[in-house]
Amino acid sequence: MITTRNSSDVDQRAPAVERAPTRVAPYVWAVARISLGWVFLWAFLDKTFGLGYATPAERAWIDGGSPTGGFLGGVEGPFADFFQGLAGNAFIDWLFMLGLLGIGLAFILGIGMRIAAASAVVLLILMWMAVLPIVNNPFLDDHLVYAILAVGLAAANAGDTWGFGKAWAATDLVTRYPVLR
């Protein structure tokens, strides 16, 4: 015989059990936010000072090197003409470097996450387009994964944990213009 239960059979007084991911998730997002922020900030620092990782000292921006010249100048693929035309342009160099710095600082500090995420998505999609065709995957690479992560960080208000997101959101400026959150 099959028996069924109706809602009156369930003890309504039993406390809800909070699942571990709910308690842990804000901290995982915070670590992801700070990590992605460091990826952008490190790229800025290495290109500015030629710390010898991706940028040798002799190509440092501070010593007259172009942060976009080497990479964009060597782009091959369907968008080669477009990106090669941008390579070494001083305006593009400044725009790229300010983007790296702004996105990196915003993510690390947890402020301006929406604008930082949107900026990161634009920058990362352009970088993804520059590396097409991808050698080891027909479509997906780290640029797109980082772009997805950036959107998730903003959507999860990841700047509120281990960051200044809550304080930033309470300012008059952000209250008036929520897009700055």
Walk me through what this model shows.
This protein is an all-alpha fold and 181 residues long. 57% of the residues lie in helices and 0% in strands. It is built from eight helices and no strands. Helix 1 (20-49) crosses helix 6, helix 4 crosses helix 5 and helix 5 (113-130) runs antiparallel to helix 6 (142-155). The N and C termini lie far apart (58 Å). The model has no long low-confidence stretch (mean pLDDT 92).
Give the topology.
Elements: H1 20-49, H2 69-73, H3 80-86, H4 90-109, H5 113-130, H6 142-155, H7 165-169, H8 172-176
Helix pairs in contact: 1-4, 1-6, 4-5, 5-6
Brief descriptors of the model:
single chain; 181 residues; mainly alpha; 8 helices
> What structural class do the secondary elements suggest?
mainly alpha
Q: Quick one: overall form?
A: globular
**With helices defined by DSSP (H or I, 4 residues minimum), what is the helix count?**
8
Percentage beta strand = under 5%
Report the end-to-end length measured between terminal Cα atoms: 58 Å
Percent helix, as a range, is: 55-70%
The ordered string of helix (H) and strand (E) elements is HHHHHHHH
Mean pLDDT: 92
> What is the tally of beta strands?
0
What low-confidence regions span 5 or more consecutive residues with pLDDT below 50?
Answer: none
Radius of gyration: 22 Å
Largest sheet: none
Gist of the model:
The chain is mostly helical. The chain has helices at 20-49, 69-73, 80-86, 90-109, 113-130, 142-155, 165-169, 172-176. It is globular and about 45 Å long.
